[in-house]
Amino acid sequence: MVTLDQATELSALQDTIVRLRDHYGVAHMVYHWVSADGEQYGCGTYPLSWVQHYVQKDYLRIDPVIIGCFKQFHPVDWKALDWSSKAAVAFRAEAMQAGVGNQGYSIPIRGPSGQFALFSLSNNTDDTDWAAFTESNRRDLILCAHSFNQKALEVETKRMPDPVKPLSGREIDVLTYLAMGYSRSQVAQTLTISEHTLRAYVESARFKLGASNTMHAVARAVSEGLIVMGGAARAARGGWPGRAQAAE
C-alpha cells in the first residue's frame, strides 16, 4: 500500500498521487482543494493541456463533479451526477477527448474553516467493471482521500482567514440558490433582479467572506452557518422568512 509518510511539502504530494494511480491501476487520480484562505491547490495525473484548458475556460463554474459533490458528504459515482445541461454535455465531451475517461468516482472532503476538497479517480471501462472496482475499493479509497487531505493540511503554512463580515439577506439568498445549483440567470429570474445586480451581490458577498471565487464564497457561507443546505427547499418555495425586505 502506498503511504504518505514521506510527503513533507505540497509538491511531494504530486509524486504520491502518481504512485497511488499506478497502485490502483486507473487512468487518472486527482486531488483538488480550496484552502482556508481561498487559495486553490491541485495535484494529479490529468494531461497538463487539459488542466490549462479547464482553468482558462473557468470550468469550475459548470463542472458537474464540482457542483454535485459540493452538496454531498459521501463518495459519488459520476454517472449519478446531473450531466443534462448543454454546458455539461459539451464539457464532458471535451473531458473525454482530453483522456479523462468515461468513468469517474469522487470523494468530497470538508476540512477546517471552510476547506472543501475532492479526491477523484477516473478510468476507461464499462459500467459493470467500474461498479465492481469502486465497491471493492471503497473503504481504502475513502481512507486514502482523508489521509491525503490531512497530509495537505499538515504541510499547509498559509494564514487562517479573517473573520467574515455579516451578509445582507439578499446576499444570503443569492449564495443559497447558487449552492442549490441554480445558474446565475436562474437566480436572477427567481429573485426578480437583473444579472448585473446579481453580480454586484456576488462580488459583495465574496469580499465580505474573503473568498477568491464564487464557489469558495458558497463554501465559506456554509461552513460559517450563514446558509443551510437543508433549508434550500424552503428558499425555493418562496424565499426565506423576513428576507423579502432585507436591505439591498
Describe this structure in words.
By secondary structure, the protein is of the alpha+beta class. The protein folds into two domains: 12-155, Beta-Lactamase, CATH 3.30.450; 169-236, Arc Repressor Mutant, subunit A, CATH 1.10.10. It has helices spanning 12-24, 48-56, 64-70, 86-97, 127-155, 169-179, 184-191, 195-209, 214-223, 232-236, and strands at 28-34, 40-44, 76-77, 103-110, 116-123. The protein has a five-stranded antiparallel beta sheet with strand order 2-1-5-4-3, sandwiched between helices. Helix 6 packs across helix 7 (184-191), helix 6 (169-179) packs across helix 9 (214-223) and helix 8 packs across helix 9 (214-223).
Give descriptors for this structure.
single chain; 248 residues; alpha+beta; Beta-Lactamase; 2 domains; disordered C terminus; DNA binding; Tscrpt_reg_LuxR_C; DNA-binding
- What's the architecture of the largest domain in CATH terms? 2-Layer Sandwich
- What is the number of domains? 2
Structural class of the helices, strands and pairings? alpha+beta
Outline type = globular
Structure summarized in a few sentences:
With 248 residues, the protein is α+β, with helices and mostly antiparallel strands. The chain is built from ten helices and five strands; from the N terminus they run H-E-E-H-H-E-H-E-E-H-H-H-H-H-H. It has helices at 12-24, 48-56, 64-70, 86-97, 127-155, 169-179, 184-191, 195-209, 214-223, 232-236; strands at 28-34, 40-44, 76-77, 103-110, 116-123.
